[in-house]
Amino acid sequence: MAVKFPEGFLWGGATAANQLEGAYQEGGKGLNLADVLPGGRENRLKLLSDTGFDFEMDKSKYTYPNHEGIDFYHRYKEDIALFAEMGFKTFRLSIAWSRIFPNGDETEPNEEGLAFYDRVFDELHKHGIEPLVTIAHYETPLHLIKEYGGWKNHKLIKFFERYVTVIFKRYKGKVKYWLTFNEINGATHFPLFGLGFSATSEETRLQECFQGLHHQFVASAIAVNLGHKIIPESKIGCMLIYAPTYSYDCNPENVMHAVEEGRLFNFFCGDVQVRGEYPTFIKRFFKEHDIEIDMHEGDLETIKEGTVDFISFSYYMSRTEKKEKTPEEIGEGNLIGGVKNPFLKASDWGWEIDPTGLRIALNELYDRYQKPLMVVENGLGAYDKVEEDGSINDDYRIDYLSDHIKAMGEAVEDGVNLIGYTSWGCIDLVSASTGEYSKRYGFIYVDKYDDGSGTLERSRKKSFYWYKDVISSNGENL
Predict the structure, then answer these.
(1) Predicted local distance difference test score (pLDDT) of residue 458
(2) Is 387 known to be catalytic?
């Protein structure tokens, strides 16, 4: 029997400004982090794991696909019409901070940037699509990185407060659903993305990361309180990357190791943003790793007062942990660590595919927090082939998404309060982790390639029609 999703369930798709907008120097926009990240899997992954990145561009050596993205900046009407054709109830997008404040520390915003998002929101509402807006999605203004050291610096809280105040006041009649920081808990693995800095050294990485996270916790809480005052009907959520953590076997040492790794990654940030306080388990971790958080007076009170209304998260993979592991056992594609799970297949990029893990994730989160949940990223990055007749038969994507939506349905049946689902990369865009066009997620194919060629023409994949049917049947036809 098919599981019925709740009435008014928010079906849709998800994107980020830096991966699809392009127009990186148009409309008064300043440079941000994504603008200086080179394309290509090896180049991008090396930067993510290295220390000491200088945040400079070298166009003689690298390509920078984020500069053009898929030109959503000029083609948003065409794309939104396609989303509406699929029946989207919501569309997750982010605002590029450097479109609103080009350097990040100005006192007055850039009107051209504000007006662009006005047009996008108006177009979405014209088609009956509810915007779901991420305030900070791997797009720290470059000036804040170079001049202030990114989120290591307490001053960024004030700059962020000014930014959110402006966008809340500007869009209070147009945007109800907001997310503060994208995949905030991923920062300890990839501070470059989330915190806007490359660790000074491996020895200082954890200290710097947790200090930066503390500043983001305060900034997020300020944003929640401001949002509730400026937009009383607003719903403001946190956004986590979630990966259920399994023990490799029933050896108690491995089980305990999996518990420790899982709660640190999956629950630490959630506990602070949802419960409003640092969890007890983090004290021992800080002590054992010589981490001391510099807290300003009133920080903990601000965090306590600024808890989120709902929890959103990305789900791509689970994680399998073993206390003692050899290099051969490590799961190559699983960016958040762990060992290979012998029971799971993997994508073209080595990401292990585990639909049941999504049901586990939903149950774990809801059992712990009892807050409404949204799955705001989930999808399959794959190579797509355009047939001679122009069709794209991406049955592998349909199978992947169908299995994960079934798992969501099971979680709903379990009693989880799930309010929405936005598949990642509903239209092909630039991959964040690898800087590639060829790693495609979308229901909509974009004629653009890793060498920079392509017409940017949009076309519907087989999954486009499948997802349209999923939405129209409220998840019954999978």
Answers:
(1) 98
(2) no
As a whole number of angstroms, the distance between CA 141 and CA 124 comes to 26
Q: What mean pLDDT comes out for the span 212-233?
A: 98
Q: Is 422 helix (H, G, I), strand (E, B) or coil?
A: strand
In the DSSP assignment, the letter for residue 440 is: B
User: Nearest CA to 223 among 174, 159, 268?
Assistant: 159
Question: How many Cβ atoms are within 10 Å of 169's Cβ, its own excluded?
Answer: 11
Topology of domain 10-472 in CATH is TIM Barrel (3.20.20)
3-class secondary-structure state, position 264: helix
- Range of weakest confidence among 5-19, 47-61, 114-128, 434-448: 47-61
How close are the terminal C-alpha atoms of the chain, in Å? 12
- Residue whose entry in the numeric block shows the structure tokens 């797009």: 139
Task: Please name the residues in contact with 204: beta carbons below 8 A apart, sequence gap of 6 or more.
Answer: none
Q: What is the 3-state secondary structure (H, E, C) of 283-303?
A: HHHHHHCCCCCCCCCCHHHHH
State the Cα angle at 122 between 118 and 127, rounded to 5°. 155
377 is a catalytic site residue: yes
- Count of CB atoms within 10 A of residue 5's CB? 22
The residue among 390, 231, 221, 385 whose CA lies nearest residue 303 is 221
Position of tokens 């999923």? Answer: 470
Pairing of strands 444-446, 373-377: unpaired
114-117-123-124 Cα dihedral, nearest 10 degrees:
-140
pTM over 0.70: yes
Q: Enumerate the domain spans of the chain.
A: 10-472
* Residue 226 · residue 309 · CB < 8 Å: no
Joined tokens for residue 423: 């598949």
Distance CA 48, CA 352 (A): 20
Q: Which of 21, 68, 130, 377 is catalytic?
A: 377
Q: Which of 123, 139, 183, 261 is catalytic?
A: 183
Dump pLDDT digits (tens) for 41-88. 888 878 877 777 889 999 989 999 999 999 999 999 999 999 999 999
Looking at residue 318, its pLDDT comes to 95
Look at residue 395 in the predicted model and tell me its pLDDT: 98
Alpha helices in 189-298 (DSSP H): 191-195, 205-230, 252-262, 268-270, 281-288
Residues in a beta bridge with 14:
92, 424
Instruction: State the residue for tokens 């992954």.
Output: 45
Q: Which residue has the higher pLDDT, 336 or 279?
A: 279
Flag whether pLDDT at 448 surpasses 70: yes
- 3-state per-residue secondary structure call for 337-398: CCECCCCCCECCCCCECCHHHHHHHHHHHHHHHCCCEEEEECCCCECCCCCCCCCCCCHHHH
Q: How far apart are CA 469 and CA 476, in angstroms?
A: 9
Quick one: which of 394, 375, 412, 416 has its CA closest to 13?
Answer: 375
CA 314 to chain centre: 6
